[in-house]
Amino acid sequence: MKTSRFQSLECTLCKAQYPVDTQTTCTKCGGVLDARYDLADKKFDLSGQVMHSIWDFQDLMPPISDGNVVSLSEGWTPIVRAERYARSIGSQDLWCKLEGLNPTGSFKDRAASLGLSLAREWQKKGVIVASTGNAAAAMSAYSARAGIPCLVLIREDSTASKLAQIAMYGAHLLRVRGIFNSKSNMVYAQGLAQNALPDWLNLLIWAPYNPLLVDGFKTMAYEIATDLGKEGIPDYIFVPTAGGDLLYGLYKGFSDLKETGTIEKIPGLVPVQGENSSPTVTALKTGAEKVKELEKAETVAGALRVSFGTDHTLHAVRKTNGFGVALGDEEILKAQREIAKLDGIFTEVSSATALAGISKAIKEGDMAKDQRALAILTGLGFKDYYPPFSDISTVPLAEELDQIPSILKSKYGF
Description:
The structure is a single chain. 35% of the residues lie in helices and 14% in strands. It is α/β, with parallel strands linked by helices. It has a domain at 79-105 and 213-383: Rossmann fold, CATH 3.40.50.1100. The strands form 3 sheets. A 6-stranded mixed β-sheet has the order 4-5-13-10-11-12, with helices on both faces. The termini are far apart. The mean pLDDT is 93.
């Protein structure tokens, strides 16, 4: 076991300190808490060797004994160059980190592995999560791995297809009408569940209520630096953004690398959201100090359909000289189709916002075409996509084997 370098949870605003198991914002000023670690003699190895999971960085995680680590070998997802898609949008240097290749198909596995490990370490009888998508699937899978019950609070109109993966892991599902209509509804619903199950751990993946889980995401920055090397650090990283934890986790990871002298610069971090679901991007564009909650959020990118955000995310973007991008539905869907057709990458609709964001940033002059851009593709395409046809009868059919040559010629010109 690597000895944890954890020191305390510290308020990002007033610097007040809290114990490791705190699950609130700062009681003094309302600021988001952040796990702090002793980096005095920390050395990162960027030699590029093949690793095993996020637990290769166990010393930069909260204190957890080896026997309580819950892992499915999450992390160390590949980074690939998207040359043909890049050319189509005018970029000369575009890379993708394929987070959909995590065990349950999304980046949320990093937080789930850490969360269930904490549940074991703290001897919790079960875990609670509010989600209808990637977070619920990840927490359900890792709960099964840990042998711990999992309660998933979901919206009342969730589709059977969306819940199928979650149900396969044996989670307890409870539909709750209006749970995601507002931040206050979501918090209140989870509070009621927590009161009913006081010995269970609430694993909502959102820093204001679970500041430790962000540290699962910061491992992504360590991997990027290892895979691309000190000289290959991107100029900008485009991040599909809902609550903002992934972006802040990347900021934490790259800050660690810079503080230890491992890298010289932190990439500009770019949150990407749907036009009608963009509280964080709106705050950036208007120069606001706080993220204002929207009355309603609508976007084809289901995982990013949020009405609220967090102020520490704004801080991370501004500290790295990043910017925000908001996108229409067709821009997002086009990027999803094009990256699949041109580079063979099948990514979730919400992940495609990162690619569409790069395209828009180049068009609007926010980024030069020769600057290195990295898109975090947060989920696998099977998570959420719109099939190119709904009726299989539209696909050409050879009624007889001998018809194959003529149909190939008439339908496809072969």
